[in-house]
Amino acid sequence: MKGLSFFSLLLICGSLFAQNVSLDQALQTSSQTVVTQLPQGSKVAVLSFTSSSQNFSDYVIDEIATLISAGNRIQVIERQYMDVIRRELNIQMSGDVSDDEVRRAGRQLGAQFVVTGSLVDTGTVYRFRLAAINVETAVREGASSLNININDPQVVFLLTGERIAQTDNTPSNSAVNSVYEGFRFEIVGNRTVAITGYTGNAAFLDIPSSIAGLPVTVIGNFVFSGNRRLTSVTIPSSVTSIGVQAFSECSNLTSVTIPSSVTSIGDTAFWGCRSLTSVTIPSSVTSIGERAFAGCSRLTSVTIPSSVTSISNGTFSECSSLTSVTIPSSVTSIRERAFWGCRSLTSVTIPSSVTAIGNSAFSGCSSLTSVTIPSSITSIGNYAFGGCSSLTSVTIPSSVTSIGNLAFSGCSNLTSVTLSRRTQVASDAFPRSARRTYSD
User: Fold this and answer.
1) Which end of the chain is more exposed for a tag (fewer CB within 10 A), N or C?
2) What total of structural domains would you count in the chain?
3) pLDDT of residue 183
4) H/E/C letters for each residue in the chain?
5) Given 260, 280, 296, which residue is the final one in a domain?
């Protein structure tokens, strides 16, 4: 889990660091980083957030606590208990707190991790930072750093109490952050349009193919994130890119049409769309981001096109209704937690193009009864098939040179393993019930 979360943080937050986000977007992304980073069931205290305003710090602490506890994966200590510890240790919610104070407070609260953060005015942007600190080791298990526009109206209001008036402009060829039929947009290079937000309330939405006489080519980051009205979306054939968290947590979205013009689907683009039952990824798509479809708990099947070469970290993790998946021969790597928690997946055939199976790639696939590992595979990562409790036998080709820690741990019905004597096997890779037969 830690490996995935670290890389997810680098890619998701890295792609956002160079651009400004809203306060709500910063809260959502930072909270998701914490949830992704920490082990399920972790006990967490959201202790302090340093800023120039007590009101701002109070708001952020409450929002972060609410967001990271929403999925019931993380236990968040109630604020009333933390207030007692803060008073005892003289910790201010909006003030600087040392790592030693954080760990001391965490121990008294019985927390495994303590979340702290800060808002820093750099002169041109606000830098929003958040980190989860391991109480025992002092290691920062989760961290994010994002830029917020210096004139963000929500930030300004919480810091100063002043409101910034916002007006909607009419479309024009020089439009920046203009609005057309509920779509906020920007014109890029006087040639194309990027949709940056949506203020409408449609349930069945057809995204326009052009605005102000120019083609819509980009659905930007967070555009529809958290929109619970949406049930169906049609993306026009002018669009080539779907941004980070573009449709994340659209919990009532049951249908989405992705046209063959789209070449990239951003990190967590459809994360948490738990009503989505099927999706067709067109052959034009060459890049599917980390956790792009994670948490789509009603998704039953998916076909990955032959244009895709890598299944990224956590792309289909926690798709708990996924029963079948077609992996094309173009794929060369299945990365960390790619299908983690797909507990309805019964069988999987890994094509001979794949050379490595990442850490926890298929862990928690408790209905998996058979897996075909081709002779192209050279390594099987830590906990790659951990918790696959329906797996009874596995044949590992001699091409595999290493099998990681706990690779098949928790496979309680695994009784037969065939492998080469030359393969380096971690001592805890297999359960004790598994009888080994050597192919050489």
Assistant:
1) C
2) 3
3) 92
4) CHHHHHHHHHHHHHHHHCCEECHHHHHHHHHHHHHHHCCCCCEEEEEEEECCCHHHHHHHHHHHHHHHHCCCCCEECCHHHHHHHHHHHCCCCCCCCCHHHHHHHHHHHCCCEEEEEEEEECCCEEEEEEEEEECCCCCEEEEEEEEEECCCHHHHHHHHCCCCCCCCCCCCCCCCCEEECCEEEEEECCCEEEEEEECCCCCEEECCCEECCEEEEEECCCCCCCCCCCCEEECCCCCCEECCCCCCCCCCCCEEECCCCCCEECCCCCCCCCCCCEEECCCCCCEECCCCCCCCCCCCEEECCCCCCEECCCCCCCCCCCCEEECCCCCCEECCCCCCCCCCCCEEECCCCCCEECCCCCCCCCCCCEEECCCCCCEECCCCCCCCCCCCEEECCCCCCEECCCCCCCCCCCCEEEECCCCEECCCCCCCCCEEEECC
5) 296
